[in-house]
Amino acid sequence: MAATKSMQEYVDMGLETYLKERVQDQEDWMEGKSGSCKKNYQRGKLLVILLSVSIPFLVTLIDVYGFFKYVIAGVGVLIAAVEGILSLYDYQNSWINYRQTLEALKREKFFFATKSSVYKKDRSFQFFVERIETILTMENKNWSESALNEVKVEKED
Asked: In 3-state terms, what secondary structure has residue 151?
């Protein structure tokens, strides 16, 4: 576990430290989470598609193998389970939200590095920090609202 920084270390934090320890760290985290959510979503959807298209074929085998009615029922249960898991963990929206936040961070870093857009003025580092922290706060707020909505749904059930 990393040691907590002292207030003085935050006060003394310069551009390189902020870019490395805050911005790059968050970009790496968002990239990883976005990629993992994308893979989970696509794998789940692929499984649902493959199971769904197998049902018509399996139905043709019921006359030959009577037990295939149970196989088909099992496939139906698997489809419902995978869709339920995809819905519960909301991989698609998480993937998109993490990706959007990542791209916003990259865009701000690009503008700052090239002294473009709002970064043509003095005190651009402070303004850069404010904008980065606003992006991260919005991501955190979106995540919190999503988590609270899940809790409310669970309590209603």
From this structure: helix
Whole-structure pTM value: 0.79
Helix 25-60 to helix 91-113 angle, to the nearest 10 degrees? Answer: 150
> What are φ and ψ of residue 61, in 5° steps?
-95, -5
Distance CA 45, CA 94 (A): 15
What's the CA angle centered on 86, arms 79 and 24, to 5 degrees? 150
Distance CA 107, CA 21 (A): 18
Q: Are 19 and 109 in contact (CB under 8 A)?
A: yes
The residue type found at 76 is G
Distance CA 22, CA 145 (A): 23
Q: How confident is the model over 98-124, as pLDDT tens digits?
A: 999 999 999 999 999 998 888 887 778
